[in-house]
Amino acid sequence: MHRNLSASNIALSLAGIVFIFVFPHLGLIPIPFVYTLPVLLLVWLLLRRTNENFADLGFSFKRFESKAIFLGALAAILLFIFLNYFLFPLLSKIIFLPKANLDDFSFIRHQFVNYLFILVMGWVVGGWYEELVFHGYVFTRFEKIVPGKYATVISFLLTNIIFGLYHVQLGTSGMLNAFFAGCAYH
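Above: the chain's sequence. Below: its structure in token form.
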């Protein structure tokens, strides 16, 4: 997968990764989840610059079938069980692990419409946007930038560390959860 990228494409790719990581946390767009639009636009523009498209990242509407949705949901349930009933209890015995900070979601308590909105947006943002942007774009950029026979392994680790840190607002447990979930889904 390693391709020689020009210095300008490497610089733009790294700047794009920084933007993907930082922009959603700046709160510049006051409407929830709308930050995804400028990020996707930037990714699209950067892909066009290298004659690529979203299909090159593994995304295709043609592969968007009920079987894929079912398998994705099953994988999510199994991952949830593993993380919450095996891995995190084990980690809690080794290190102090505070619960994830979910204060940003307090507005859904006893508010069914708000709950449904967050549930749907969680599927869209967590299940599509984050996969496309992080495990599609960020991973493939690192894979093209990092030289050597360990490029894929290094890219995998860098992508998932960044993905975990991207969830900083959830605290240590949330970042670890995102890191391990990212590793599992990748």
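Helices lie at 7-26, 36-49, 66-94, 112-145, 151-166, 171-185.
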